[in-house]
Amino acid sequence: MNAPFPILSLEGSQTMSERRAIIDIGSNTVRLVVYGGPRRAPTVVLNEKVSAKLGKDLDRTGMLPEKAMGAALAGLGRFAALLRLLGVADVQTVATAATRDASNGGAFLDRVRALGLSPRQLTGEEEAHASALGVIGAFPEARGIVADLGGGSLELVRIDGGTIGHGISLPFGTLRLPDLRGSGERRFASRFDGALGTAWNGQAGLPLFLVGGSWRAFSRYALHLETQAHASQLDDPHGLELEPEAARRIAATLAREFTLAPVPGISGSRLNALPDAAALLVQLIDALQPSSLVFSSWGLREGLLYAGLDPAAQREDPLLASIGGFAQRYGVTHSLAMMVSNWTAPVSGYLTDRAEALRWSATMLTLAAQRTEPNLRRDEGLDWALRKRWIGIENQGRAQLAATMIGNSGAIEVPPDVFELAPPEAIREAIGWGLATRLCRKLCAGAAPAIANSSIAVTGGKLVLTLREPAAPLYTDSAARSLKLLADWLGLQFSVNVELAASLRTLA
Q: What are phi and psi of 95, to 5 degrees?
């Protein structure tokens, strides 16, 4: 049986936080995000933005435009009032490149303070550091380069398994790109190479983690192309991984477009800016020669939250925290999830910490699905697995979540698009997780004493179900069918041992 280890503790992962808020005064947008849910995997309660474009024309004038400041201050006034009315006391207000570079940036922040907010001006290094922490929070074992594209600047920073290394800030934000590209693509490429070459000494051939609204728009466009090519249930850009050649091909095509047809999930303003962002991505791929491109929905704001956690909370598994907090809404307690996960563990063999976290998470999601309408469980469970925003998971993990849901329903047929996301052996393993959870449900009905007085084991080439006296009457035809289904899937014979007060009885 796989033993629980501290990093997988569900107790800490399901600790709900008080609501916290981040106000991000960016060069393009001014945004308020209010977070709730688990501390390690916060969920968005409120997300509002104002497209103020504080950094517009900054290179020519050196100042924040008066009209843009007015729009930003109106939005910030609303944000401050909302936070007071919502009773959110934990608020961080940060400002990035536009106010940092503008001659009137300090005066503007004084006007922000008059609204009752406490803005903190981030340096380029602090901005890069926060974005890197956001990626580390979402991908704890990440090793590579973080590229955070904002309205006023592009931050590049090296990360290696929780360690943040060399970082730089370049004046290649989305508001500056139209002018930078205005003199032609060769001149644009030369200027980018010159700026990067004097400041960056990073290693080539590493994964490139892309952060920021423009990169997310690019990833949604790539997903849209994938859906058009063949049916796919994936539509969340977080964690999407692209091969460099494929990403460069899409980017090079987009960079030549003047107008784009509407794409679901991409706003008009993001769509209009997509060709410029794509042109910059071509330069990044050519210069850094990454091994892969990974898109992250977590960046600066989530990095600020992650930085505020104590070391123990930072070490929690983000997927367990994410799915644990979600399952809790459906009445799935951490103690029940742990009991069922431990009960089913003997059929999963040895798993790494990361794989065990995925199995526990799949168990929690399966138990939550059982609390929904019977006719919706399978389809809703598959939607949760494949489409809901989870932190700390990649395509293979999503496929295994889906396969666990399918196994829990008593089925073994997996849709072709799910098979495309993971190796067959990973899908097969996860179906076994689902079948084992189904057996536990059918036998014990979620009753803790029943789970405690029963167990399964693989012994002598057999799947053996053991029932101790209080649980003996629970073994009925329904449980027998689930036991046989699991044994057949594992390629094993099965037997049932019933331990009575003074004897041991074996059932065929």
A: -125, 145
Taking the mean position of all CA atoms in its chain, how far away is CA 8? 17
Asked if residue 142 has pLDDT above 80, the reply is yes
| Beta carbons of 51 and 29 less than 8 angstroms apart | yes
Helices vs. strands in the chain: H and E counts, helices first: 22, 15
Q: Residue 259: what pLDDT?
A: 87
What confidence category does residue 4 fall into, taking pLDDT thresholds of 50, 70 and 90? very low
Query: Would you call 268 exposed, middle or buried from its count of C-beta atoms within 10 A (0-12, 13-18, 19+)?
Result: exposed
- Whether the CB-CB separation of 290 and 241 falls below 8 Å is answered with no
Give the number of C-alpha atoms closer than 13 A to the C-alpha of residue 325, restricted to the C-beta side: 24
CB atoms closer than 10 angstroms to residue 97: 28
215-272 pLDDT, tens per residue? 999 999 998 887 765 556 677 889 889 999 999 999 999 999 988 999 988 999 899 9
Does residue 443 share a domain with residue 344?
A: yes
The model's pTM = 0.88
| DSSP track, 112-177 | HHTTT--EEEPPHHHHHHHHHHHHHHHSTT-EEEEEEE-SS-EEEEEEETTEEEEEEEES--TTTH
CA 363 from chain centre, in angstroms, equals 18
Place of tokens 């916290």: 20
What DSSP element (H or E) covers 457? strand 454-459
**Enclosing domain of residue 231:** 125-302
Question: How many domains are contained in the chain?
Answer: 3
Residue from 264, 226, 261 nearest 246 by CA: 226
Report the CATH number that the domain containing residue 88 is assigned in CATH: 3.30.420.40
